[in-house]
Amino acid sequence: MEQRVDIKLLNEKIEKESAFIKTIRDEMGKVIFGQKNLTDSLLTGLLTNGHILLEGVPGLAKTLAVRTLASIIDASFNRIQFTPDLLPADLTGTMIYSQKKEEFVVRKGPLFANFILADEINRSPAKVQSALLECMQERQVTIGDISYKLDDPFMVLATQNPIEQEGTYPLPEAQTDRFMMKVLITYPSVEEERLIIRENLAREFPTASRVLSVADIIAARDVVREVYMDEKIEDYILNIVFATRFPEREGLEKLTPMIEYGSSPRASVNISLASKAYAFIRHRGYVIPEDVRAVCHDVMRHRIGLTYEAEAENVTTDEIISEILNKVEVP
After folding, report:
1. Is the pLDDT of residue 172 over 80?
2. Does residue 253 share a domain with residue 321?
3. Which of 120, 285, 295, 319 could lock onto 14 through a cystine, CB 3.0 to 4.6 A?
4. How far apart are CA 244 and CA 242, in angstroms?
5. Are residues 206 and 99 both part of a single domain?
6. What is the C-alpha to C-alpha distance for residues 255 and 248, in angstroms, rounded to an integer?
């Protein structure tokens, strides 16, 4: 009985604390038409301190969405175009000699911002990718012999073009695992694209207003972690993740020859966090199985390795995740 009262109070608190989500969505909606999944993914990453890998063809408003969200919460934003000749120091910064001071001084790179859009991250060689991914993990940059803490929030959104793969350096599995989610960006509907045309032809392009501060987001993160998750939901998440490692445990023997390696423990942690954020975005103080199912594809699609047999049969990780979700018993 006491637990029910706690859940009720928590639900009321979350409903109150998450009221700003509607405001953010409304402001994003002034500039971005459609792309609801992209907006929700950005909010999930922001509320859980996670990084996001975006995959989609050019021109789907990825840069615009990130820049708009940054302006709504009055955060700094930098876009870095990854190219084959990029160097790690082009991201982190370097020491330069000042003739005026007659000493070396630090010139900080573009990574010193709240939002980093790493455009076409797979265009640069491994050294540059690893420099960025180290900053993502450690939340600091070392220049010379001094380490500098990165701004909080610090969120990396890296884009990949799924079509043009010539001359690219694909991210190794250990590096993609650092991204909380891999989100697939799709084309807008006919009506959404009609609105895009009209807004781009209008005399003035709409802009979003600043409605929150960075401090508000940092405070909201603590509230997201308060969202209640029952032990049965934890078991459900574990069963889903373990089914990618041992499919036969769930009666999915046919998937065994398709999966080279299953999801890491980061998948379990990130599904839990993303599920709590998903519930928070929907103004709910507790996680339900539908929240878990809603985030599973984005969190796990880059954490499952396919065998040559699966690739030969054109089996995708999304199909494997769907099979698992259809088989694992829902609490």
Report:
1. no
2. yes
3. 285
4. 5
5. yes
6. 8
Q: Which among 216, 245, 276 is the end of a domain?
A: 216
DSSP state of 106: E
CA distance 269 to 180: 9
Per-residue pLDDT at 166: 64
Domain with 183 in it:
23-216
In tens, the pLDDT along 80-120 reads 998 888 888 888 888 887 788 777 888 888 989 889 998 88
Sequence-separated (6 or more) residues with CB below 8 Å from residue 242: 249, 262
Q: How far is CA 162 from the centre of its chain?
A: 17
Q: What one-letter code names the amino acid at 78?
A: N
> d(Cα 135, Cα 170) in Å, to the nearest integer?
19
Cα 29–chain centre separation: 19
Sign of the CA dihedral 26, 29, 34, 39? negative
Please indicate, yes or no, whether residues 272 and 191 belong to a single structural domain of this protein. Answer: no
CATH number of the CATH domain containing 186:
3.40.50.300
Amino acid (one-letter) located at 20:
F
As a 3-state breakdown, the chain gives helix, strand, coil percent values, each rounded to 5, of 50, 15, 35
Token pair of 306 as six digits: 């396919």
Same-domain pairing of 111 and 251: no
Phi, psi for 93 (deg, rounded to 5): 110, 180
Phi and psi, residue 97, nearest 5°: -85, 125
